[in-house]
């Protein structure tokens, strides 16, 4: 008889549950939607991080294969310098990789600093590049390039 003395007897009444089921269901649904939204956000962030790491790993593999191009110290030896042509393609590939990383992780300061440090090595070519002058790159990459070029 403790239920009747404490007022919990109302929980034994089926009419009480009929009235509260819609409200309880609403809170359960809101909780489930919140968890689902959180899971989607975590999944997107994880996917973007994996994409950025994969792209940057490909860039690093090219750097390892061609350290003479990755150093940023290459000076052309004339108009028909084939190595300089390779360097310009390397440079464009580098900018494209950085653009993709920034699209995947636009507000990540660690990625921005990594890209900035790599672009500083190629500062001499940044000022010569026609694609840089014509601002053909993503706005976030263009902003970093402008910072470096001054």
Notable characteristics:
single chain, 150 residues, mainly alpha, 8 helices
Largest sheet: none
Query: How many β strands by DSSP?
Result: 0
Classification by helices and strands: mainly alpha
Average pLDDT, rounded to a whole number, is 85
The helix fraction, in percent, is over 70%
Rg estimate, integer Å: 29 Å
What low-confidence regions span 5 or more consecutive residues with pLDDT below 50?
A: none
What's the overall geometry?
rod-shaped
Oligomer: single chain
In words, what does this structure look like?
It is rod-shaped and about 95 Å long. 77% of the residues lie in helices and 0% in strands. It is mainly alpha-helical and 150 residues long.
How is the topology of this model organized?
Layout: H1 2-6, H2 14-65, H3 67-70, H4 82-104, H5 109-121, H6 123-126, H7 130-133, H8 139-149
Concise synopsis of the structure shown:
This protein has 8 helices and no strands. It is an all-alpha fold.
């Amino acid at each position: 008889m403790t239920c009747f003395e404490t007022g919990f007897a109302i929980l034994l009444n089926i009419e009480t549950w009929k009235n509260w089921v819609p409200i309880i269901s609403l809170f359960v649904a809101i909780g489930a939607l919140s968890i689902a939204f959180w899971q989607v956000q975590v999944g997107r962030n994880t996917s973007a991080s994996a994409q950025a790491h994969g792209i940057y790993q490909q860039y690093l593999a090219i750097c390892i294969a061609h350290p003479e191009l990755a150093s940023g110290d290459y000076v052309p030896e004339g108009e028909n310098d084939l190595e300089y042509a390779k360097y310009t393609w390397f440079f464009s590939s580098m900018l494209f990789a950085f653009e993709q990383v920034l699209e995947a992780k636009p507000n990540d300061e660690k990625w921005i600093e990594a890209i900035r440090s790599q672009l500083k090595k190629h500062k001499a070519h940044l000022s010569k590049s026609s694609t840089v002058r014509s601002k053909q790159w993503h706005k976030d990459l263009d902003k970093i390039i402008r910072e470096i070029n001054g």
